[in-house]
Write a structure and sequence with these properties.
By secondary structure, the chain is an all-beta fold. The chain has no helices and 11 strands. The strands form 2 sheets. Strands 2, 4, 5, 6, 9, 10 and 11 form a 7-stranded mixed β-sheet that branches. Strand 4 and strand 5 form a beta hairpin. The relative contact order is 0.33. The model has no long low-confidence stretch (mean pLDDT 95).
């Protein structure tokens, strides 16, 4: 079992920045990759960024150049640095981890005002 707890969401003006954190606990040694997803009202959940255990990353086209995913293995924490935020980034952001199962955090709200 893996437990994920997100933090760092909030309200920010367009052009601003936020950093999301996801603290992982449990059987974290078995995790193959971790990522951030988001879900806006009335839309499907979508991948924002993902990082493998080897450190390889990939991003949704809509956030490339603005968002950076990283992980601190010593702290068992995943981060998402979000810069140049846009109103269309408004969503609930979820932390995700996978080994032979997929785990989700409870989500954190990010609201970007225009």
């Amino acid at each position: 079992q893996v437990q994920l707890v997100e933090s760092g969401g909030g309200l920010v003006q367009a052009g601003g920045s936020l950093r999301l954190s996801c603290a992982a606990s449990g059987s974290i040694f078995s995790i193959n990759y971790m990522g951030w997803y988001r879900q806006a009202p009335g839309k499907q959940r979508e991948l924002v960024a993902r990082i493998t255990s080897g450190g390889n990353t990939n991003y949704a086209d809509s956030v490339k150049g603005r968002f950076t995913i990283s992980r601190d293995n010593a702290k068992n924490t995943l981060y998402l640095q979000m810069n140049s935020l846009k109103p269309e980034d408004t969503a609930v952001y979820y932390c995700n981890a996978a080994n032979n199962r997929v785990y989700w955090g409870q989500g954190t709200q990010v609201t970007v005002s225009s």
